[in-house]
Amino acid sequence: MSVKEELNFHLFALISYYTNKVFGIFPFSYNYSARSFQKSIFSVLYSLSVVIFMSYFYPMYCVSFYFQMLNRNFRGTLETYVGIIQSTFEFVVLILTNCVYLYHKNDIVDYLNLKISYGEKIVKLSQKCDGKINFLTMILISILTFIVKLIMDTLLIIFQPIMQETDKKMLFAIYLIPNTVTTLIGCTFCLEVISLQFFAYQINSSLLKIAHCISGLSNINSNAKKMIFCCHLSDKVDELLILHSELNDILLKFNNHQNPVLILYHFNKFVEITIPLFFEYSVLTGSSETTPTLDMYASATLINLIGFFELAITAVFCDKLIKEMERTGRILHEFPVQNADDRLKESINKFSLQILQEKRPIIVCGMYRVDNSLLYIMTSSITSYLILLIQFHIEGI
């Protein structure tokens, strides 16, 4: 793998960094000459100003504006209060997310710099980048999901009949900014997970090459050549052991500072998907002053599907990372150790023992794992709360 190939991944990380920085999420700076992230008092002050502005702007201007808009478009009070709860929750999540990044800024800087230096070690590991197209495809899926979601949210504000008679600037502030930040957080999480999976994949590819070399040891007739070759392979295994251990440490650092962010993200996605579905039901049953149209339902349904797809790829990509880390143990278990000498066997056994002692699942504050099982939990929770809101609506609460 060439340095140029590796830099493609770093480029996407920088794009993510500067996009997040616009919203005050990353309170640190990037030094191009040193190719590292650094603490920055100006970035911290900018993030603090965003938090202070949001804390003042929402209660002073947004609550009354949103309340009037909902009252004008819905006949019942339930829809109004549910909408206010959604908007309030999304703004609180936005403010808390910025606060979390401010609190963990030093940990995040250490993690990002550690990942950059680790990526340079992976570059030296092999001259060929295995699986590059697959990982670039995953990255593009994450970025395109963010772009499509942003475009659809913007079109919804511009063309939805329920929003056409409302101040667009306020709608962009109330609706678009929180949704954009939430989607951006999910996209950033996916990009980080993909890069970590890429590192694990390179380690596993190197282990498979070593396993192939060990299989060919039986064809070497000279004991001296065989011993030298085994020593070389043993050194390679030891090097991969160190890299795998460092990758596990990086993953743990990533998990630690992402814990509160993921809680906020998943709760926000739950609200972002559930309540618009309830509003669609209210419009369908005639509780809205707006006449329902096919275009209205199509656009709203598409946005909900994109939102759920966004949630799905965070879980699926995270699950793929964990499975890639677990694949290392299976590869080592299938090593043809009968062809290896004692030193090589010792290196392989040491690697296997280290893997048994590692904890790899990304668990959010001991509450749930970020993997495919999360999709079932979120789907069932969204369905349950949507049914509850519909029951309240039917009973006229």
Description:
- With 397 residues, this protein is mainly α.
- It has one domain (3-394).
- Helices cover 80% and strands 3% of the residues.
- It has helices at 3-22, 41-73, 77-103, 105-125, 132-159, 168-215, 223-284, 294-333, 342-356, 372-394; strands at residues 28-31, 36-39, 363-364, 368-369.
- It has a two-stranded antiparallel sheet.
- Helix 7 (223-284) packs parallel to helix 10 (372-394).
- The model is unreliable at 1-7 (pLDDT under 50).
- One of its GO terms (biological process) is sensory perception of taste.
Question: Which helices and strands, and how do they pair?
Answer:
Blueprint: H1 3-22, E1 28-31, E2 36-39, H2 41-73, H3 77-103, H4 105-125, H5 132-159, H6 168-215, H7 223-284, H8 294-333, H9 342-356, E3 363-364, E4 368-369, H10 372-394
Antiparallel strand pairs: 1-2, 3-4
Distance between the first and last residues' Cα: 62 Å
**Major beta sheet summary:** 2 strands, antiparallel
Helices, by number, come to 10
* Structural category: mainly alpha
Number of domains: 1
Query: Low-confidence segments, ≥5 residues, pLDDT <50?
Result: 1-7
The tally of strands reads 4
Shape label: elongated
Q: How are strands sequenced across the largest beta sheet?
A: 1-2
- Radius of gyration (CA) equals 25 Å
SSE run? HEEHHHHHHHHEEH
Quaternary form = single chain
- Mean pLDDT over the residues: 82
Helix content: over 70%
**Beta-strand residue percentage:** under 5%
